[in-house]
Amino acid sequence: RIKYSLFYALKRWYLIIIAAVFCSLVGIGYSIFYGNKFVSTVSFGVQSQNSTSAIISSAMSLANNFGFGGKSAGIQYDNNYFATLLKSRVILKETLLQSERFQGKQNLLANHYINLMNLHDDWDENDSLKNFYFKHSTIKQLTNTEDSLLTIICNLVVQKNIEIVNDETSPFVIMSITSKSREFSKLFSKDLMQSLNLFYFKNVNEVNAINLNLAKFRVDSLANALTIMDANLAVLKDNSNNIVKQQGLLQLNKVQRDESLLSIQYSSAVSAYEIAKTNQLVNTPILQIVDDADS
Asked: Smaller CB count within 10 Å for the chain: N or C?
């Protein structure tokens, strides 16, 4: 039976050749039509610092021992927050305006993207865009035309090049960048993660810094006022040594009451400042990259 099968296959050799040629043509056609696709993947997770960590626990314990107890009320930054942020226009624009060497040329990623995706072919009908390239490397410097085209490119990246997998059952977010070039995919992945880090620590963390500065300013102001009050109180005590009537001590008693109230306010301000410092540490998440673009 096996011999018969082999004989039949050899007898129909032309069918096998036709099938092989057809499959090859399909593969070539797919490659031409869709082009080669290269994927760069980055896995990361957000680990929030909390009172269970050794450093934070020690800080909270020390603050409580000195009467500086309190609960943090910071925003909870999780994987979903950062996964959404990766597709935001501000992060993508910052990434596309990074300068990288690609295919032997140093240029903005946005300009590399224009060449890689052959966007000029779509812009040929507009004379002003035939040879368009981005010249400015910061968002604030962009012209109206540059900003509009950069927004269009951001939308293209979201539609065609970036995929975010954020499974609630997994502690990690998986970001994939797909393009016609492996080198470009890796560069874009690396710069996108850097833009994400810079945005968070520069802008989001700024809220905690403002609260901390306000608390410190209040402590310093009350400390100066208390110093002046102590000096006035000392002068009044010196002047009251020879006073016989209690009426002469009215001003002294008033200053003593004010000094006592100011001391209470100062203690509360110091407590708030210590809590603000601890909260700033507690509310700062750690962005942990498990697999980067070069892995």
From this structure: N
Measured CA to CA, the distance from residue 195 to residue 90 in angstroms comes to 9
Tens-place pLDDT, residues 188-222: 999 999 998 888 777 666 766 777 777 777 778 87
Average pLDDT, the chain: 75
Structure tokens at 13: 């050799």
| Global confidence as pTM | 0.63
Share of residues in the chain with pLDDT > 90 (%): 28
pLDDT of residue 133: 94
Q: Is 158 exposed, middle or buried (0-12, 13-18, 19+ CB in 10 A)?
A: middle
Quote the CA–CA distance of 58 and 247 in Å, as a whole number: 52
DSSP string across 229-244: HHHHHHHHHHHTTT--
Q: Which percentage of the chain shows pLDDT scores above 70?
A: 65
Collapsed DSSP state (helix, strand, coil) of residue 49: coil
- Per DSSP, 139 falls in state G
Quote the tokens at residue 165: 């997998």
Question: Tokens standing for 252?
Answer: 């002294």
For residue 42, list its beta bridge partners: 175
Q: Is the pLDDT of residue 60 over 80?
A: no
- Exposure class string for 32-61: b at 16+ Cβ within 10 A, else e: eeeeeeeebbbbbbbeeeeeeeeebeebbe
CA separation for the pair 191, 45 (Å, rounded) = 17
Residue 126 DSSP symbol: S
- Coil/strand/helix, residue 289: strand
Alpha helices in the chain, H assignment, sequence order: 2-11, 13-34, 54-65, 79-85, 89-96, 109-116, 120-123, 144-156, 182-199, 206-239, 250-282
Is the distance from CB of 265 to CB of 220 less than 8 angstroms? no
| Residue owning tokens 């802008």 | 203
Alpha carbon 263 to its chain's center: 41
